[in-house]
Amino acid sequence: MNAKTITYTYPAHVTQQTASGKPLVFFAAPATEIDRWVGVPQRSRLDDEETIGFQRQENKTRIRELSSFYHDERNIVQNPLLAAPQTKTLVEFEELDGHPQFGTIKIVSPDFSDTSLLDLMTQVVEQLESRVPELKETDLDPDRLSSIMDRGRKEHGLEVLTEEDEDEEGAEENGGNGDDTDAASVLLTDETHLIDFYTELKGRIKVLGALDPDANPDRILGFDRNAMISYLKPIMLVDGQHRLKGAVLAAESLAEGSEGEDFLLDAAEAGKDPGQAKAEFIGQHSRQLPVSLLMDDSPSEHVFQFVVVNQKATPMGKALLGTIVSTSLSKEELDPVAQRLKDAGIKLDDSQAIAYLTRADESPFKNFVQTGITGATGDQNTHLQWSVLKGLVSIFRELSGGKLFAQKNDWAKAWAKFHLDDSSYVAAFDTHKEKLAEWGRPDGPWREVFIRFYSNIREKFGSDDPEALNAWGTTRSNLFNKVSLTILAADYFEYLRTQKRTLNNLADVDATMSEWLDGVNLAYFNRNWKVEKKDTPLIRRTWARLWNDYRRNPDYLPKEGEFNPTAGA
């Protein structure tokens, strides 16, 4: 269904900073009008599924403060809203005859007020497929789709599909031959988040399609109309969502005051519709906000501008920055701006590497790391900090930082110096520098070694019971915390170096870990150490010494009281 459209026009000035740069269009518009044609896809969670927007979640307090600021007409904000087209065919600059730098910006905005949620979701899916064509050929997770349908049956009373119906729908949906699907899966290996979001949308489309034709819900299994519309508006807000929302709130609150009440009473006496009269008053009192519109509709440029603006002006948390950079774009979209992000001081490779570990099903850290996303799964206060996971990753990826606390030897660096060059993982490369670079690619050999190492640690020492002393997934545990996880990694590399062992494959990881932990009591971390604050110099030194000594001679298990030297002092 094609939505009706509304066309907005504003006097504008266009400039181009460099010969190869995209044009910038400057203009001003009422905040309430901007709010109708601009989308603000936020990095948030819908029904526990993370969206692919990059804007931070709204800060209600900040919006109220800005609204109060805007109530004084003398207060002026000089910073323009930064925006860019999502759909270039709906945004056009028309030059003024004889004055090409001046003219009119024309914005054609679909009116989605009568568009069903099913049509909105279908359009978002089509938009994703146009960005990443390989999605069409990707094998969607049948268990995930089945789970969505099961929830649809429970929450919306859907009839149970037969296995034949599901098979036919799946074949029609995925299409293509097996070889094409396999190729697409390989291309999208590191784009787990885009695939997950796409799958969740496709599943909900199936649920909506199975509802009664007269049903037209605004929300389905946690996904709502407003979130979908943000992806479909003609222009994307890159920076300034709080300024915009504050200005809109200021205009709306005026309508609730005495001046607004008088206007509405006069309108009622004149026979005007109350809703239209209120909208007219708000429009008349809406502040004009300056807009800087970059005429580039590529998602990669949108993310680049957002990250650079927010990291340089108002730095965001490393967790949220890494999450946004690494998961808002496909690989093909990220490649053109990757070097520019690095040149701007954004540690892109780190973000990609860590974001994968927080999302991949095979990662023992999935859902257990702070991502900076509001509404993220579980208790974020007891999740591992993003910076802690980065430190663990550095030991394996950069082969640096593998020190037992209070010791000088960097065992990861020593292992790299003496044994990396002999590894089959990097045999195709000649120089030590080349081998290090190959090992440390965001998706290089280090990653499967890292995942296997900590998966084995979880299996041998951890518990899935969140209340257990050796719980995996909560930093309240003796095991799942910065200190213990770092000690285990550093000690493993000490063993590899002192035993002169290289790693050629995952079988080597398993074999060397078995030798390394030979005789160790697997209940080591499942005892009451009576330590609340773990990351202190004394505790770090004590735990490193106790583990290293015990691992070398497992005949003498440290007593529980030894783990906290200050207890009872």
Q: From the alpha-carbon coordinates, what is the Rg to the nearest angstrom?
A: 28 Å
Instruction: Please give the share of residues in helix.
Output: 40-55%
Summarize model confidence as the mean pLDDT: 83
Net shape: elongated
So how many helices? 22
Distance between the termini: 74 Å
SS-derived structural category? alpha+beta
With strands numbered from the N-terminus, the spatial order across the biggest sheet is 3-11-6-12-2-1-8-7
Q: How much β-strand is present in the residues? A: 5-15%
* Largest sheet, strands/sense/barrel: 8 strands, mixed
Model regions low in confidence, pLDDT < 50 over at least 5 residues = 44-55, 160-191, 312-316, 373-379
Please provide the count of β strands.
12
Could you write a compact summary of the structure shown?
The chain is built from 22 helices and twelve strands.
Notes on the structure:
The structure is a single chain. With 569 residues, this protein is an alpha+beta fold. It has 22 helices and twelve strands. It is 48% helix and 11% strand. An eight-stranded mixed sheet has the order 3-11-6-12-2-1-8-7. A two-stranded antiparallel ribbon has the order 4-5.
List keywords for this structure.
569 residues; alpha+beta; two-stranded antiparallel sheet
Set down the secondary structure blueprint.
Elements: E1 4-15, E2 24-30, H1 31-37, E3 38-39, E4 45-46, E5 49-50, H2 60-71, E6 81-85, E7 91-96, E8 99-111, H3 117-131, H4 142-156, H5 163-174, H6 178-187, H7 192-210, E9 219-220, E10 223-224, H8 225-232, E11 235-239, H9 241-255, H10 258-269, H11 274-284, E12 288-294, H12 299-312, H13 318-327, H14 331-343, H15 348-359, H16 386-397, H17 411-419, H18 432-439, H19 445-461, H20 482-498, H21 506-516, H22 537-552
Helix pairs in contact: 1-9, 2-9, 3-7, 3-8, 4-7, 9-11, 10-11, 12-14, 13-15, 16-20, 17-20, 19-21, 20-22
